[in-house]
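Entry under discussion copied across for reference:
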Amino acid sequence: MKRASFLNPPGLVDDFARRPALEAAFAEAWDAWLGRSLDDSAASAKAQGGRFRRPNSMGDAPARKAIAWDAFPKALARWYEDGEQPDELRWRVAEVPRPMRYGRTRSGKAVTVLHRQQDEYCEWFVRRDAEGRIERVDFTSEGPEYWLFLAHGTNVLYRELDDPPPFTFDGDLSLVVELYREHVSEDVDEADLVWPTDVRVRRGGKWEIGHRKGEYNPFNRWNTTHGAMHLTHPSSTLAAEIRLASDGAVVRTRGGRIATDPDELICCSGYGDANRSSDPTIGATVNELARAGYAIALADPIGLYISELDLDAFVGPNDEDVSDAWTVDRGDGDRILRAHFGRSEAAGVPVESILAEGTPIRYGGQIADAIQMVLVGEAGDQAEPPRGAPGPTKCCKEPNGKPIEAVIERESRCADVDWSPATPYTGADDEERVGEPADDELEDSDFVSLPVTRARHVDVRL
């Protein structure tokens, strides 16, 4: 539903309308949080000479530019490209959830969560029968913040900020349960979706309460080992999308000249992961508009979207049309938030009888290979192109010859880079984890460090 005065929810989904008494509050609170994120990013870009702003309202937009990239993780493809059966390896490993030491309980017990290794803002979950055959594959591109917002309104999203929200809105956890039952499983209970205890997390080198008992848990089992409702990879968030676009709006110099190459830009700007298809492509496209002097925005509705599946890549065992195997579940057009690939009723064949580029489907990654992702940038008013500023970061190459890089601060040493997060998790070392340190022997550095986003709000309209 189009709301002229507010920033819209991703994909123009009508979730707010499911709670008529709360619909107006949902809309206003979402606009407040999203607008806050955009204004803070605009202030950061402005301080570095960039021009980033809120989008124009729908129907009154300047030139828009679709930015597309591949859904399958480029990092996994690169890691296995020189191995035996590289496609088989990357497809298989992409389905292995990765453990992450996320925080501690108040008593000091370590809290480990799982996330998917699918880091191109598209994640999938393969539903298999008792014999391991694929029944369907669910795909999602929804950021976790939206689901925290549905569950708890402003109460959680503003927790780490220095100033309170414009108004308080509690959200509705029952709405999240309702949507999970509709899209993931009818067996979902509210208790399955929430943290069973308070969880302390590391943020900016300090320990603080990140989640309270009874609050929505983005890493719950119905979103990891038993299904996929939204993105789980730590880097795949709406906030990351906004930061990436705003940082990309800053023109950079390198060696006294304007940087233009996508790989060079991400290395010197530090706005994402150099090993992805998404981040270098998004940043470089935004930066191209910035170098022409345009003010940059992300088009409303802001979100990360599945654009399309190349249906020509799939046929039945006897060359049948199986295009009905692909079903869009949330979003529409080229703003797809959720879709699934299942049995073709028209051809009368199950997923594993369908050929993907001539090969029977055994992994969800074979379908992801044919998916294009997209976000839409918006070019606003044009001014004199900025002169550019030196970038704060640089890239280091993996020392053992793997074709991957790490983006680090310019003053840091490549010799000090920890390459373990870039190494794919295969699940083969699960037995070795038995010998890991006890909870009271773990160091702070053993836990993930979450990004700091707290800042005093500055209202900037460029």
Remarks:
- Residues 23-47 form the longest helix (25 residues).
